[in-house]
Amino acid sequence: MSRRAANVYHKDTSGPRKKSNPGSITKAHDRIYFKTHETLLEGLLGKGLPPMTDRLTNELKNSIASLQISHEWTEFPDLEKFYQDYVGAAVVKTIFGNVLLSQNPDFLPYLWEFDSVVMRLAQRLPIFCAPRTYWLRYRLLQCIKKWHTYARIHSDGYERVHSEDSDPLWGCRMIRDRFARLRDINNQDYDSLASTDLAFIWS
């Protein structure tokens, strides 16, 4: 994310609630924390929660069914990898849709590797001390930007045949609306939007 885009976050003193914090001079148009919080609240705790729960249940069923496990006792050598490959994939598909992973089949392996080294970025190590970490972040951002571009191009005039909350391109209305709202804020660009989605996916 560029310094210009990040400064919008630094300068927003209005808080995440509908009413700005007392004394804040942040303009309504630039209330990035409120706009971020509002879409997440609607999608994860509001009317978007029931359909998202249904999608997650179906994705988990399909993911587990793909293993073709019999009724006999089946042992997996690595529980963490099982969670990453099947439960993690179901969660990502539920929120962000199938396009992201279908376009970028290496996205999840890169994401889990990034998760194991991300604290090197928090330590502000220079790139020559953690080249793989910086490369993973770059690669994940490129995957997200590729998905964003595809979704934006094909969203124009797209006739949605799924439920009101579900979106085959963006995953769900929460992600589609979040992208649109943040894009309209001053100094936000497609690089910064990819960064915010990477943070969301990683979290």
Characterization of this structure:
There is one protein chain. With 203 residues, the protein is mainly α. The chain contains 10 helices and 2 strands, in the order H-H-H-H-H-H-H-H-E-E-H-H. A two-stranded antiparallel sheet has the order 1-2. The two termini are 17 Å apart.
Quick structural summary:
The protein is 62% helix and 2% strand. Helix 2 packs antiparallel against helix 9, helix 3 packs across helix 4 and helix 8 packs across helix 10.
Task: List the main descriptive attributes of the protein structure presented here.
62% helix; mainly alpha; 10 helices; globular; two-stranded antiparallel ribbon; 203 residues
Main β-sheet description = 2 strands, antiparallel
Q: What is the CA-CA span between the terminal residues?
A: 17 Å
Mean of pLDDT? 89
Structural class: mainly alpha
In what order do the strands lie side by side in the largest sheet?
A: 1-2
Count of helix runs: 10
Oligomeric grouping of the chains:
single chain
Uncertain residue ranges: none
SSE string, helices as H and strands as E: HHHHHHHHEEHH
Radius of gyration: 19 Å
Strand runs, count: 2
The percent range for strand residues is: under 5%
Q: State the helicity in percent bands.
A: 55-70%
Q: Sum up the overall morphology in one term.
A: globular
List the helices and strands and how they pair.
Layout: H1 3-11, H2 32-44, H3 49-65, H4 79-96, H5 99-103, H6 107-117, H7 119-122, H8 131-155, E1 166-167, E2 171-172, H9 173-183, H10 190-202
Antiparallel strand pairs: 1-2
Helix pairs in contact: 2-9, 3-4, 6-8, 8-10
